[in-house]
């Protein structure tokens, strides 16, 4: 499907002006490649800040920009209709004079001529923003990754394709104990599937959370019947007539399966950036303003890295995609403001809402705070400095912790641990 939703009836070529040129306005063309959360945020911000040139938003998928987090949760569970996934109605792009080109990928970029090729068209840009996102890692074909029924959650079409397999009593193997794998396990268990999850590391969430958070979610999933196997990897998958039927694990055990979901991380989509010759460093490397090594090319979202604490940091979250893309839009318009990351994340599993603020890298102590009705939060410290917080069904602790971290404040650890401490008082200390 190749869908072009033209906001204005013109085609852009180098040095060509748009329909507004009749009024004597100079034309500038910003092209955004990648119609996800970051891309949608960037084009909306440009218009909101008064940019009156041409904007084109290009996406590989045949859908207007949509939310990805609900795909493997509310949408897969049948609790959200497709139209509710869309970030904005298509009428928004018409009203805001934003051209959508959907269902056709960009095949080449010429940074010298400042052009790119999409379908049969060559488009000129004054500024190009790469919001190309990321791609889930897949299992190698050598261990059965190419068998029918071995799936990843990437986009709307992936979820539509896997939905019929989520039938009560079906057997699913989930490979990977990060948030993606655990969220998929929760949905499958809620729908009555038999769920086995394998995590090669010593514990689930080992890369992203403290042992306390891992233990909390291990208990939650166990109560819902999920068979979690930690310290156990996948050796290979077995199949019949090209379809997956089972798995052999690294400890020699076997599991019979009807399908497999793979959640072993993502890879930033840097192919177009490499084609354009821009620097790659943990994704598409940008400076503090979001500009790449090419002065006319910018990047934001999952695909982009930015300087933080002496290294190129990449954050995989909705919040980062929005904030970084809006910063890029502002800087295209001349703001010259550095991107100041305020990391926050969330995960929904069963009736538990996990909210995370900050980055826990370098922590050496966890302070546990128990609240009313069984809620709990884990506060990450490096020495006396508060770095991050994991809050389970405790939005108040999350909001206070987030504000403390953003303000650079670190409350006394004994005060945090004491359930009698008024959390709001910590903000005033």
Quick summary:
The chain has 429 residues and is α/β, with parallel strands linked by helices. The chain is built from twelve helices and 27 strands. It is globular.
User: From the structure provided, what is the oligomeric state, counting identical versus distinct chains?
Assistant: single chain
Helical/strand content category: alpha/beta
Largest sheet: 6 strands, mixed
**How are the strands of the largest sheet arranged?**
1-4-3-2-8-20
Number of DSSP-assigned strands:
27
End-to-end Cα distance: 58 Å
Task: Please bin the fraction of helical residues.
Answer: 10-25%
Rg computed from alpha carbons, rounded to a whole number of angstroms = 23 Å
Tell me the strand percentage band: 25-35%
Shape: globular
Please count the helical segments. 12
Q: Name the average pLDDT.
A: 92
- Give start-end ranges of low-pLDDT stretches: 7-25
Q: Describe it for me?
A:
The chain has 429 residues and is an alpha/beta fold. Helices cover 24% and strands 30% of the residues. It contains twelve helices and 27 strands. The chain has a six-stranded mixed sheet. A five-stranded parallel sheet has the order 10-17-11-12-13, with helices on one face. Strands 23-24-27-26-25 form a five-stranded antiparallel sheet. The radius of gyration is 23 Å and the shape is globular. The model is unreliable at 7-25 (pLDDT under 50).
Provide tags for this entry.
globular; six-stranded mixed sheet; alpha/beta; 429 residues
Secondary structure: elements and pairs:
Blueprint (H helix, E strand, L loop, with lengths): L2 E3 L23 E5 L3 H12 L5 E6 L11 H5 L6 H4 L4 H6 L2 E5 L3 E5 L4 E4 L2 E4 L2 E4 L3 E3 L13 E2 L4 H7 L8 E5 L3 H12 L3 E6 L11 H13 L3 E4 L3 E7 L2 E7 L4 E3 L2 E4 L3 E3 L2 H5 L8 E2 L11 E3 L4 E5 L2 E3 L4 H15 L11 E6 L2 E7 L6 E6 L5 E7 L2 E8 L2 H13 L5 H5 L5 H6 L1
Parallel strand pairs: 2-3, 2-8, 3-4, 8-20, 10-17, 11-12, 11-17, 12-13, 19-21
Antiparallel strand pairs: 1-4, 5-6, 6-7, 9-18, 14-15, 15-16, 21-22, 23-24, 24-27, 25-26, 26-27
